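User: tokens in, sequence out, please.
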């Protein structure tokens, strides 16, 4: 295992099973409304796990509660839960499934997998910082997505379909 606070580049150092700590995980998104107004929101992770093989192979997932969307504006949040956006009654979760990871040097790892939103699954790759401290691993990544690729195309005039997502996820050794 890497020393405390050391950034990882050799994934085999993390061999074993890992469990997401939802209380130390943040999923935040940023978008624009009416061309210029910044809208910031967050989701809560429900669960997640990962496995790293001795050879550095990986698999895992993070499951997010779609109904937990919170932009600090009730009317907007209620609308985001409808069929115009996440349709949370039919699609209660958003899931990232990890299938590959490749060290990119200097503590960076390319994480490849699929993102499922509202029943649509698409491939995504994120460049993440991976670090460890005292039996836990923190993965920090940012991703730009076009929500229209997942069927979330409703927009008022001037609303952006582009979203910037920031993820900080902590996993503990199982």
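Assistant: Sequence out:
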């Amino acid at each position: 295992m890497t020393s405390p606070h050391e950034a990882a580049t050799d994934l085999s150092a993390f061999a074993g099973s890992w469990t997401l700590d939802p209380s130390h995980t943040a999923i935040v998104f940023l978008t624009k409304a009416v061309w210029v107004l910044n809208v910031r929101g967050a989701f809560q992770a429900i669960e997640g796990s990962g496995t790293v093989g001795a050879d550095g192979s990986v698999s895992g997932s993070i499951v997010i509660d779609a109904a937990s969307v919170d932009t600090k504006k009730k009317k907007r949040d209620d609308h985001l839960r409808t069929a115009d956006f996440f349709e949370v009654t039919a699609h209660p979760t958003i899931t990232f499934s990890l299938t590959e990871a490749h060290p990119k040097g200097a503590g960076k790892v390319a994480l490849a997998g699929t993102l499922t939103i509202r029943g649509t699954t698409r491939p995504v790759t994120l460049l993440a910082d991976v670090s460890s401290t005292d039996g836990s691993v923190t993965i920090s990544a940012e991703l730009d997505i076009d929500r229209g690729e997942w069927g979330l195309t409703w927009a008022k005039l001037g609303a952006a379909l582009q979203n910037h997502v920031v993820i900080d996820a902590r996993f503990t050794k199982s």
